[in-house]
Design brief:
- The structure is a homodimer of 243-residue chains.
- Chain A is α/β, with parallel strands linked by helices and 243 residues long.
- Chain A is 55% helix and 13% strand.
- Chain A has a 5-stranded parallel sheet, with helices on both faces.
- In chain A, helix 5 runs parallel beside helix 6.
- Chain A is elongated.
- The interface between A and B is large, with 57 and 57 residues.
Chain lengths: 243, 243
């Protein structure tokens, strides 16, 4: 958080008062041609405007008009393994972090590293996402927006975090067929899952429950990651960043 | 985050310009007694000062003087079960949340509820606090200060989070003897631990490694929770909130 120190406010007020009063003195001299009176007007102006400006600032502290709470939001990217979620979420995050808002990136892969003992059964996945949701809610509650990407295959888990975040939860379905994800899968996870070397693999040996009414659907079979990112940014600017 | 909309800034600038220019006109009229010339000075003043004020604001955008980054901090309360950590941390949090800073409260008890399957062996405690530390670091990284209270019996765990947060990590040792904690323990945990009904209980069947150089030591055997809270607030005001 960048704060303005008292010294900065004071020095800035003084430089402005000098410019403003010199302007007044110059104007009065221009009209009346009497420097000593122009200077006297300037002297009185300094005193009066210091007082009036102080009162004006204090009065505005009590006026609510035009103050707006900028709500943090949670972008939740869901989709099959290797559908392109993390890539797009990274690009969106990079664009958002250039703006004046607190934003954090949370990715399934990174969080999993902290929980090496948690497996991929339905029960474990649900408990895992419940904890992740609490963490994200904590960030959002403190005005930090979150760009999250998790396979999050079950409607139950996604509904739980939606309940926590309410209207600022933006579900983004990164849509691609199993075939196209397989082609994109550089780590060969799909192949290993088909051979049975990985259990409970979403899309092969575990279900992916498609979102019913996501805020956005990104079709990574026909659009590039950059095009999808632009779709997300457009949505954010239209619905979340309007002032 | 509360933002000031463009409308508010505009209306505030207009109300100030009206007050300021009326003051100038009144002053000029007072000195020279010619209303039509006083009005002309006022008219020109409005135009010139709009321009000059704009230039003055733009120039200050490039001046770094007096801008200060307000660093978030992590208060880490450590101590035996029932030593008074949570009570004091709650009181400190309440006082901090009244101020203009983002602050979050994280308590061992609440976090444990999200991890019902994690036990209390040395290994499990360390893995648990590692995850908690990552969450807290994420908050701190996004300018959210954290009031954390965890038994955190091992130096290793506390050093790990200190490494993450660096100089903004404030270790607070809530100190009380096992005997005095026992008296304070309304839930009868110590009794159950002594009977062997609870395993790995810090202070009875597991070690508590005292902090070697905590930023603060709160002696809950001789001081009330309110007195300890005041000690913490004094420390914060002296070291963390100075402007």
């Amino acid at each position: 958080m960048i704060i303005e120190t008292k010294y900065r406010s004071l020095i800035k007020a003084i430089t402005w008062r000098i410019i403003a009063t010199l302007t007044t003195v110059a104007l009065v001299y221009m009209f009346f041609g009497r420097l000593e009176l122009a200077a006297a007007v300037g002297g009185l102006e300094v005193l009066l405007k210091l007082l009036f400006n102080f009162l004006h600032e204090r009065a505005w502290l009590f006026i609510k008009f035009g103050k707006k709470k900028m709500e943090p939001f949670v972008l939740w990217f869901t989709g099959l393994p290797a559908c392109g979620k993390s890539t797009i979420a990274d690009l969106v995050y990079n664009q958002l972090s250039d703006r004046e808002l607190e934003v954090e990136r949370v990715d399934g892969r990174d969080v999993r590293k902290l929980f090496p003992e948690v497996g991929f059964t339905r029960q474990e996945r649900i408990a895992h996402l419940k904890r992740v949701s609490h963490m994200i809610r904590m960030l959002e509650k403190n005005n930090v927006s979150v760009v999250a990407s998790f396979i999050s295959p079950y409607k139950e888990s996604r509904d739980e975090i939606r309940q926590m975040i309410k209207e600022n939860f933006i579900e983004i379905y990164v849509k691609a067929s199993v075939e196209s994800c397989k082609r994109r899968d550089t780590k060969g996870m799909y192949l290993r899952a088909e051979k049975g070397e990985i259990q409970n693999f979403t899309g092969i040996s575990d279900v992916y429950e498609e979102p019913r009414s996501p805020a956005l659907v990104l079709d990574t079979e026909t659009l590039s990651a950059e095009q999808c990112t632009q779709q997300v940014i457009n949505y954010i600017e239209k619905h979340l960043l309007k002032r």
